[in-house]
Amino acid sequence: MQQLEALTREAAALANGKLATGKLALVPAETEAARQMQICNACRYCEGFCAVFPAMTRRLEFGQADLHYLANLCHNCGACLYACQYAPPHEFAVNFPQAMAQVRAVTYEEYAWPRAFGVLYRKAGATTALSLAFGLALFLVLALTMAGPVLQQPLGGHFYAVFPHNFMATVFGLVFAFAVFALGMGARRFWREVSPAADLPRGQGPLLAAARGPAAVEATHDVARLKYLGGGHGDGCNNEDDRYSQARRRFHHLTFYGFLLCFAATCVATLYHFVLRQEAPYALTSLPVVLGSLGGIGLLAGPAGLLWLNLRRDPRQGDVAQRPMDRGFIALLLATSASGFALLLLRDTGLMGVTLAVHLGIVMALFLTLPYGKFAHAIYRSAALFKYALEKRLPSRLQLGAD
Ligand code: SF4
Ligand code: SF4
What we know:
- The two termini are 46 Å apart.
- The longest helix has 33 residues, at 115-147.
- This protein is elongated.
- Helices cover 65% and strands 1% of the residues.
- The protein has a domain at 124-191 and 229-374.
- Helix 8 (165-194) packs across helix 14 and helix 10 packs antiparallel against helix 11 (287-312).
- It has a two-stranded antiparallel ribbon with strand order 1-2.
- By secondary structure, it is mostly helical.
C-alpha cells in the first residue's frame, strides 16, 4: 500500500515536471546527455581532451546540476566527436559536443533573469537582437530629427551637442546596470545549483575553504588563455572536419580582449570627463581613442573570423538550432565596432549626429541582450572552471583513484 502511495506521489510530481525530491525532472536534452555520459564514463577514451571528462569520472550518475555544470565546462571544441568510436552511424549514437550544446541552451533559459527574456532569446535570439538594435537606432534618429537641424550640422565631434552628457550617462548607466544585474542574477542562480558546497561530504569544509584561492587563480588563468580551445593537446580545436586549428581560439581572444579594451576606453573617457574635467571629443592620440580603436579592431576581426568559422562549421558539432542566436550576437558585435569606427571617421562631418544615434542604438541592444546567449555562457563557463579547479583539490567521493 505504501509503495503504491509513493508511486502515485512520484507520478503526480512528474506530471508537474518535478521529481518526488522536489527537483525538476530532466528535459529531453538533459536525459539524452545523461545517457551519453554513462557511455563516456564507461569508455573514457577522451579523458585527455578537456576538463569535462576528468570531471565526469568523479561521478557515477548525472543529475540536473551535474549536467548543467559539465555542459558549461564544455567549450565545444569538437575533438570528442571525431575521436568517438560510438558516434553515428554506430547504434550508441554518441555525439557529445551536440549533447552538451543542447544542455547549455537549457541553462541559458533556466538561469536567465528575467527567465521570460531567456525563453524569448532562445526561441528568436537573432530576430530579437537585430530588431532591438534597429528599433533603438531608429528611435534615436527620429528623436534627433524632431529636435531640429542638429542632425545635419558639422559639430566638430562634439557628441554632447547631439545628446547631452547627462542624458547619455543616465541612459547608458541604466542599461549597463541592467546588464550587470541580470548577468549577476544568472551567475548566482547557476552557482547555487552547481556549487560544490551544496553536497559537500562531512568534514571537507576546511579543505574547500583552503582550495578557494588557488582554484580562483587556476580558473582565471584557464579563462584568460582559453586553455581548452587548445583541444587538450595544444594543436587547437576542430571546425569543418577532423583537422586541428587554432583559428577559433585566436578569434575568441580577439573578440574577448577587443571587448575589454572598448570597455576600458569608456571607463577612461568617464575619468577624463569627471576627474580631469576634459570633455569629448578627444584627440586621435588620446588614451580613450587609442584604447577604443585597438578594441574596435579586435571587435571587428574577432567576430568576423568567428562568423566565417560558424558558416563553415560541421553541422554535427554543436546544436544547429542555436546558430541563428549565435550569429545574431556576432552580428551585433560587428555592428558595434563598425558603427564605432564610422563615428570616428565621420565625427567632423554633418553625418555625425545620425551615426552617433545608430551607434548608441546598437550598443544599447548589445548590452540589453548580453545576459541571454553566448555571453552568459562565458559567465557560466568561468564558474564551471572554478568549480572544476575546486573539485580537483578535494578527495574524490568515489575513491576509485580518480585524480
Ligand atoms: S565521446 Fe566517444 S570515445 Fe569519447 S569518451 Fe565518449 S564514448 Fe568514448
Ligand atoms: S567538445 Fe571539446 S570541450 Fe566539449 S566535451 Fe568534447 S572534447 Fe571536451
